[in-house]
Amino acid sequence: MSERENVNDILISVLNSVEEGVFSVDMKTGEQLFVSDSCRQIYGYTPDEFKANPNLWFDIVYEDDKAYVQEQNARMYTGEKLEVQYRIVRKDGKIRWLNFKMLPIIDEHGQINRINGVIADITDRKKDEQIIASAYKALNNIFDTIDEVLYSVDVRAGRVKHISKACEKLYGYKAEDFYEDVDLWQKVILPEDAAIVEQHIAAVAKGNKDIKQYRIKTKDGRVRWVENKVIPTLNAEGELILVDGITLDITAQKDAEEQLQESIKDTQDYRAALIESSIVSITDRYGRIKYVNDNFCKISKYAAHELIGQDHRLLNSGYHDKAHIQNFWATITSGKIWRGEFCNRAKDGKLYWVDNTIVPFLDADGKPYQYVSIRNDITDRKRSEEQLRKSEKQFREFFELAPEAIFIMDGDTGRFNDFNENALKLLGVSEKELRQMGPADFSPLLQPDGRNSAEKAAELIKDTMHGAQPIFEWQILCAGGKEITAEVRLVKLYDSDHNQLRASVIDISEKKKSQELIRKSEANFRAILDNTETAYVLTDLDMNIVSFNQRAAVNVPLHFKQEISVGMSVYSFLRGGRKSVMKEYAQRVINGENLSYEINLKELYGTDLWYSMRLIGVCDEEGKMFGITISMTDITLSKGISAELERKVDERTRELKDTIKELESFSYTVSHDLMAPLRVMNGFAQMLTEDYAEVLDAHGKKCIDVIMNNSMRMGQLINDLLDFSRLGRKPMVRKKVVMNELVAAVREEIKSHGGPTYHAEVVQRNLADAVADPSMLRQVWVNLISNAIKYSAKKEKPLIEIGMDKQDSKDVYFIRDNGAGFNMAHADKLFGVFSRLHNQSEFNGTGVGLALVSRIITKHGGKIWAEAEVGKGATFYFTLN
Amino acid sequence: MMEKYITEILVVEDNPYEADLVKRCLKKLLPPERIAHIEDGAQALDFIFARGQYAYREGAGLPRLILLDIKLPKVTGLEILAQIRANSTTQQVPVVIFSSSKEVRDLTDAYKFGANSYVVKPIDFGDLENVIATIVKYWLDVNYFQVNSSNSPDKP
Questions:
Q1: How many C-beta atoms lie closer than 10 Å to residue A673's C-beta?
Q2: Which residues of chain B neighbour A716 with C-beta distances below 8 Å?
Q3: How many Cβ atoms sit within 10 Å of the Cβ of residue A645?
Q4: CA A155 remoteness from chain centre
Q5: Cβ burial, residue A196 (10 Å; 0-12/13-18/19+)
């Protein structure tokens, strides 16, 4: 045995003899190079057994720790020195806690060669640790369950050693937050309280226990009051090494304090307000004034020093009787509060009213030792009450003078407390009788609505007492059986002490009658309206339908394919362009126009449907327009008739035009073609006399003369006839005609053509001007003057007078001659065409002249007539419209 | 073969008897060869414009006066008047409307178409003679009218 082996043996025996197990494993081969005997003790397995099963050490690891062991084992390959603890299951089944210390041996290549380890059985130590841990845990639990935050700070290390879980509740921060940041507790303090905390810290630094209250802001932003108690620990050098403390949440307590402070302040405020606003005095038990406030002085006009020490009777107004004062003294001396109104007299003699509350302050024996009196000035109120009394007096006068019957009724009993003279007159009863009556006593059994009078009255009274102010009609049965209709107003009386109401009653029987009449006439009117063929629709100014008659209810749906109802817009019946046209019409009506027009609903029906429409504004009594009536009359039928009429007129006009045309062409033909043969007859007869003068005897010559004269006469007739017919076709042009000038000109013309027959004396009076067709009027005068000359030519002294009369404010022109005249019996033939009252041999003429004159006058809308006497002359009169 | 006289008065009249009366009156005033009578409107135009059956009158010059009836067969008096006035050569020829008509319409139409005068034929032959004498005296003696025989009318 070498020395080395010896040393080895010694070492092995040492290793085997120590309580800890020692082992060495070749990491390359996994071979267990050495396992000490103690390992057997620890594991209960022999070293041979370990050698035989290289994995045995892992197989026996306690199941729960296997993962941990594997994880730790892996670290061995990093070359780290290890100390691990885990449990194994011994061969005898016992579970043991083992502590492994392992040292990896690294070779020159940096490879892990071997692991040497020491195993110790620490099962017993583990047990102790567990006991301590659970004790510690229990303590922690206790800490954690209390609301106060307990903490401990290692000042030198600048580290929170411990803080109880209550911190979370108080600060909102977790214990971990405090462990991480030792200054956190200081950071949450409100800046306002920073000074307090500085003092706190200074005190603790000196080693003094200190308690401070301050506010913190929690993590979620709430402000809390806390109280912090700190116990510092100093070392021998007087250096602060440890701080232990408790922090309490005192918010609730602080709040309560604040409230108390506030309520104290409130009380002070109240007191100040009371003294400010009210009249306050304090008297001693004998009624001597101890204190008065400014208001007291102000109202009483006394200075404080004049009042202090004086009896309250100084202010006695003498208004109140003794009983009032005795009652008041009796109340307060017995320790009760007295409330009432007092009239006092101020220093200047003026009276003032106060509303007084006197509070006795009682001593320990319950006896008043002083009285505090609080008053308010009610002088104004008293004044208005006085006014009210006066107005009540006025009311009373009104009550009697009022035109209606007034009853003051007790709301509870339904009896009459009061009534005026009119009430008695209305009912025809005496005052005494009425006092015994209720409303039902002068009402018929039933009211018109069929309700029992007594019940209905009771209900109305009840409603009134609850604040309603009903106005209603009531049938009243007067004394003597006369029944009248009255309008009744009920009002509750608030100014009385009792539950009273006032009934104002007016007889409206007459009004009712006239209303009934109006209603009837309206019904009649309505009946007429509903039976008319015209549809009426009343709208407001925006053309919304307010009402309509029966015809509208029938016709509108029929013709507009839409039902009509109140509230509809008129526009809703119209389409497109019609709508805007109606809007324009409505505006025109609002502007004061009355519109009437005709419309054809052909577009809706394809056939003609004519309506005559009228739109008229409707005004109220003050003339303010409030609506529009639209009336629609179906005039399709009359339209048809008038269309037929128009067609006929057209036809006749056309016929007439044709006739006129024919007549024109006829007269053209006449003037042309009838004249030529006459001229030829005349000419050839003349030629006969010229060319055969020597052949013809006297008779022959006479015959030729007859031919020539008659052809000429016929020419004249045709000419006159043409003139006459031309007149009918000629349009009339009315102008102002200066009659004097016209007649003078005509006379001159006739005179110039007249030759020897013209020897009449013509007198022309003043003639009024006229409005007429000048050329036609000229023709009239030509014919009339010519006639006058012609028919008076045979007189020795023909006299013609032209003048004018007024008849019925009309100008009547006349021409009078003293000529042949005519028999009035034939006057009717005077103005006919070709009718003559004289024969050709007497007076030459065609019989067209007067017909022409008559036609012209008629055309002017005038009249022509004549008066005559055979042999004495004729007068022709005419007017021009 | 008709001779080419210098016509002084052309009478356009469809009624031969009336024409006889007028011509009788005229013949008392001027030689018959100076008076031409035409019975219808179409021929009257041919005569005036020297065409158709009157083409031989080429160069014979224009009449100094035309007495024109309004109511004519074929072409009316007014149409003849219008054509006379429409031609630059014939437009100055005096035309007297010699008509039975007193119709205003005829009167206004005649002046509208350019008649120089409108005379209503009297029924009485004596009156007729007087009227014709007045017309002839006025238009042939009083009125100044330049006859340019070398100038034939433009054929329309």
A1: 13
A2: 123
A3: 11
A4: 77
A5: middle
The helix (run of H) or strand (run of E) holding residue A50 is helix A47-52
The confidence score (pLDDT) of residue A4 equals 61
A671 and B100: CB-CB below 8 Å? Answer: yes
At residue A540, φ and ψ (nearest 5 deg) are -80, -175
Phi–psi pair at A696, nearest 5 degrees: -80, 135
B100 chain-A contacts, CB cut-off 8 A:
671-673, 675-676, 679
B81: left (phi over 0), alpha (psi -120 to 50) or beta: alpha
pLDDT band at B151 (very low <50, low <70, confident <90, very high): very low
Mean pLDDT of B11-38: 91
Say which DSSP state A394 is in: H
- The pLDDT of residue B117 is 93
CB-based contact A799:A813 (threshold 8 Å): no
- Kindly list the distances between the CA atom of residue A705 and the CA atoms of A487, A719, A852, in Å, as whole numbers in the listed order: 113, 21, 30
**Helix (H) or strand (E) run with residue A877 in it:** strand A873-879
Q: How many degrees, rounded to 5, is the angle at CA A691 between CA A689 and CA A694? A: 75
In angstroms, what separates the C-alpha of B48 from chain A's closest C-alpha?
Answer: 25
CB atoms near residue A525 (< 10 Å): 11
Name the residue among B140, B82, B90 with its Cα closest to residue B109.
B82
- CA distance linking residue A509 with residue B74, whole number of Å: 101
How confident is the model over A677-722, as pLDDT tens digits? Answer: 888 888 899 888 888 888 888 888 888 888 888 888 888 888 887 7
Would you say A307 and A300 are in contact if contact means Cβ atoms under 8 Å apart? yes
- Residue among B18, B68, B100 with most chain A CBs within 10 A, to mutate: B100
| Cα(A859)–Cα(A845) distance, integer angstroms | 23
pTM for this predicted structure: 0.37
Q: Mean pLDDT by 10-residue block, N- to C-terminus, for chain A (881 residues)?
A: 66 76 80 78 80 81 87 78 86 86 81 83 82 76 76 86 84 88 88 88 87 90 89 85 88 84 79 80 87 88 88 82 83 86 87 87 84 86 80 75 83 83 87 85 87 89 86 88 88 73 86 80 78 86 88 81 86 83 90 87 74 87 86 81 80 82 72 81 89 87 88 84 76 88 90 72 90 90 90 87 89 92 83 74 77 88 90 91 77
Query: Is the CB of residue A683 less than 8 Å away from at least one CB of chain B?
Result: yes
CA distance A686 to chain B (A): 7
ipTM of the complex: 0.76
- What pLDDT, on the 0 to 100 scale, is given for residue A817? 92
The pair of three-digit structure tokens given for residue A829, joined into one six-digit string: 């033939």
C-beta of residue A70 within 8 angstroms of C-beta of residue A63: no
Q: Compute the radius of gyration of chain B from its Cα atoms.
A: 14
Phi, psi of A499 (to 5 degrees): -80, 90
On whether the CB atoms of residues A115 and A76 are closer than 8 A, the answer is: yes
Task: Tell me which residues of chain B, numbers 88 to 107, contact chain A at a CB-CB cutoff of 8 Å.
Answer: 99-104, 106
Q: Which residues have C-beta within 8 Å of that of residue A339, sequence separation ≥ 6?
A: A355, A356, A357, A358
The alpha-carbon gap from B57 to the nearest alpha carbon of chain A, in Å, equals 31
Q: Are the C-beta atoms of A548 and A536 separated by less than 8 Å? A: yes
- Which residue, chain included where needed, has tokens 């119209």? A574
- Give the Cα separation of A284 and A271 in Å (integer): 20
Residue B14's closest chain A neighbor by CA?
Answer: A676
At A357, the amino acid letter reads T
Compute chain A's Rg from CA coordinates.
Answer: 72
A656/A644 Cα distance (integer angstroms) = 18
Cβ of B103 and A667 within 8 Å? yes
What is the Cα–Cα distance from A407 to A416, expressed in whole angstroms? Answer: 7
* A610 touches A599 (CB < 8 A): yes
Report helix angle B41-48 to B77-86, nearest 10.
Answer: 20
